[in-house]
Amino acid sequence: MSDARPRPSRRWRSGFALLASFLVYLLPLPGPHAAPLLGAWLVGALAREPGASLALASLGVALGAQGATFGVAWWILGRRVRALVLLLYVPILAMTTWWLTLALIPRLTLIDRDDAPENLSWPSACVVPGASLMSVPTSSRSPAGRPWIRSGPDAASYGWLGADCASRGPLAPPPGTMHSLIFASGSGATLETTWDVPAQRQRWWLRASPEADARELATPAPGDGVPILSDDGAWLISVERPAPPPETPRLVLRRVEAATSKVTDLGGLGLGAYAPLEASIAGSDDGISGEVLLSRNEGELIAIDPDGRVTWGPMRPEGIAAGSRTMRRVASGWVAWDAYVEDRAYAVSWDLPSGKGRHVVPRGRGLSSVDVDPSGRWLALSTSTVYSLGGVHDDVVVLELPSGAEVFRDSMPPYARSDVAFVAPGVLAYTAWDGRTAEVRVVHAPTTASPR
């Protein structure tokens, strides 16, 4: 028997199909933290980056999905029995849209191919199995040859690594849980913290050397950044605020083994947030001398004497979105790298006595760690993927300065996020990871004699 019911007019079918096609913009896009609707996601992407290839390509996908939905809806309205096709069409539409907007298009538009071959031309000096380097803040004036490593069960054993892979330590952990190294001086003194579970508070500790026991310090007053030690480990330096902003911060220098202290108001440096990065301080009966390097508002370096007079800088690296821990003073120069960017590739820039330069890593990769060797001839960096899209490996790379030519590359599986540190002129230590276990490798430039 034929269907005797009248069919809807072509104008009615077209209007209803057009309205139905806009339902594609209500399609949720599943993500790790939220599931925004396709329409809201497109509006945000186009408002943020109206000319970006990712936003434009995703808009093309959305318009294609809308056109396909219009055609399917118009066809279904011709026969009611055809509505069963929606049971197949809707999941296909959702899966295809998700794959295109969340996987294929981002991979094609956000990630550059990196076909640079592995180059292990720097010979191996030694290896520390079952260990990894640690990024412990320290002074740029600290002598090379003393990066920190962690090893043992739960990677909770800390040691001070030498160029021959021999380590001092391990550190005897102070009472408490969540033992952390906050700062390390060039002399081997460390500032550490633990968590007191019964009291529910953080405890602060000072250790004079890797072999010494830690002794407890008074809890630092609230302020900007975290306290640090002077190069010789004899002074505790902090930036404190007697009251919240706009109250100006003050630089506080305290001698660890004596009552000597000095407080300097930082109001003369201008409004902002200040954090101590390194300090070389000397005290005598005639007063306190030396220099303290501060970060100002995260992306700027400035050095002052204990009286607050500017001795170096201020320096803000042009074209680099640096943070307080992604800038480093090196002799009379500096090196800085992007802490976080979205609209361009990550880069590292330098201005050293040997010359200026800039190195851009392929898009889709961030900078996990950067270090410059004591002679200023080499710069090491490690990269890791910034997107969970697959197909991007990690790399440890060494550049020759000032040209920026690549002279070493060790590739690893994704998410290795290796730390790098020069332990002597032309001698590099870094964490290598094969996807299951980690080890610290020490390699040296071909013209550098092995430290063994």
Describe this structure in words.
The longest helix has 25 residues, at 86-110. Among the domains are: 10-110, no CATH class; 114-165 and 332-452, no CATH class. Helix 2 (38-48) packs antiparallel against helix 3 (53-76) and helix 3 packs antiparallel against helix 4 (86-110). The model has no long low-confidence stretch (mean pLDDT 86). The chain has 4 helices and 28 strands. It is an alpha+beta fold. It has helices spanning 10-21, 38-48, 53-76, 86-110, and strands spanning 124-129, 131-134, 148-151, 157-161, 167-168, 177-184, 190-196, 201-207, 215-217, 223-229, 235-240, 250-255, 261-265, 274-284, 287-296, 300-304, 310-315, 327-330, 333-337, 347-352, 355-360, 365-372, 378-385, 394-400, 405-412, 420-424, 427-433, 438-444. It is 16% helix and 38% strand. The protein has a 4-stranded antiparallel sheet, with no helix packed on it. The chain has a 4-stranded antiparallel sheet with strand order 2-3-4-5, with no helix packed on it. The protein has a 4-stranded antiparallel sheet with strand order 6-7-8-9, with no helix packed on it.
Put the structure in a nutshell:
The chain has 452 residues and is α+β, with helices and mostly antiparallel strands.
